[in-house]
Amino acid sequence: MLRAGIGDIHLSGYVSDTLEEDGLNRRLSIIIRSLKQIGDYCRNHNIKYFELWGDIINDKNIIFSVAQEAFKKFIVEYSDIHFIMISGNHDMSSSGDTQVSAISVFDGYPNVTVVNDIHTDGNRTYLAFSNTIFDNLKKLDPSDILISHFGVNEGMLQSGMSVSTEVTMKDLKKFKLVLLGHYHKPQNINNESTRLYYSGNIAHLNWNDKNEQKRFIVYDDESLEVQSIPLTGFTEYKEYVINNKEEALSVLEEAERSKNNGHYVRVKKMCHDVIDHPSDILIIEKEKEVDITNRGIDFSQNNDTKLRNYLTIKEIDNQVHDEYINVLHDCEII
Predict the structure, then answer these.
(1) Is 4 in contact with 42 (CB distance < 8 Å)?
(2) Cβ neighbour number for residue 228 with a 10 Å cutoff
(3) CA nearest 54: which of 115, 105, 2?
(4) Are residues 88 and 38 in the same domain?
C-alpha cells in the first residue's frame, strides 16, 4: 500500500509576515497550501494514508490559534485521508519527565492517529520523540520500516555541517527502511542494510532553505520502494554564485528572472573583480570559503569542546567563546 509522508511542518502564526489572499500570514499560507498539494496528490493517486513525521508545531510551549485553526480545516477538508502524526521535539511542551505533546489535541478526529510513544502496525514501527527516544530506539524489535524523528550522525544540516549524535546508521541495521523528520535538508543515506530518507521540511521559510528542492515522500509499505515528489509553485529563497567576471552577466540575468518571478534572491561574489550591475539584486562579497566539512568535531569531545570548535568554524572571536558557553550552561542547553 502506498503512503505519503513529510516531516517538519512547523506551524506558527508568523505574525511578522504580510497577509495573503487566504487571510493567513505568508509562511503559514505556504505551509497550508503545501499540505493541500500533498493531499491532492494523495487523492489523485488513491493514497489513503498521509504521515506527518514530527515537528508539526514550531514554537513548543506556544500554540498559535490561527495556525491550529488552519491546520484543523485542512484535516477536515481531507477527511477521506487518514493522517498519522508522530510527535517531534518541537511538539513537546517541556523537557521534563511530564512531557506533553501539543499535537494530542488532534487525536479526537476520526481520520487522525496521534503517536506519542511507540506504535507498531504490521511491518511499520512508529517512534515518537521524547527525552528517552534513544533508549526506546535500542529496545525496539526489528521491523521492515521505522518512522521517527531524530538526527543520525551521518546526516547533514542545511548549513552543510553534520553534528555528532547518539545514533549512527549501524544502530539502525534492524530496519530495512527508515523514514525521518528532524533534519530540514532533504537527503537520502544508505548502507549495506538500511535505506534512510529525511523528507526535509515542507517549504522555503527562510534563507536556511536556499536552493533546496522541497519534497514529500511516497513509499510502498510492501515493496519498500520510495519516491521523492517535488513540492512546486511556491516562493523560494535562491542564492546564485559568481565565480569570475566572465560569468557575471549570465548569473545576474538568471537571478533577475527569479526575482521577477517572486522569489527571494541574492548573489554571492567569490571573485575580487568589480562587477557592474544595474539591478538592485543584493550582491554579497565573499572573501573566503570556510570548509565546514572539516569541522574538528567528533564523539570523543565533550560538549564544551564541540561548541568551541563550532564557534571557531563560524569565525566567532575567541575572546567571547566563554560568554557563549556560559549562556548555554545557564539555559541548561549543554
Answers:
(1) yes
(2) 14
(3) 115
(4) yes
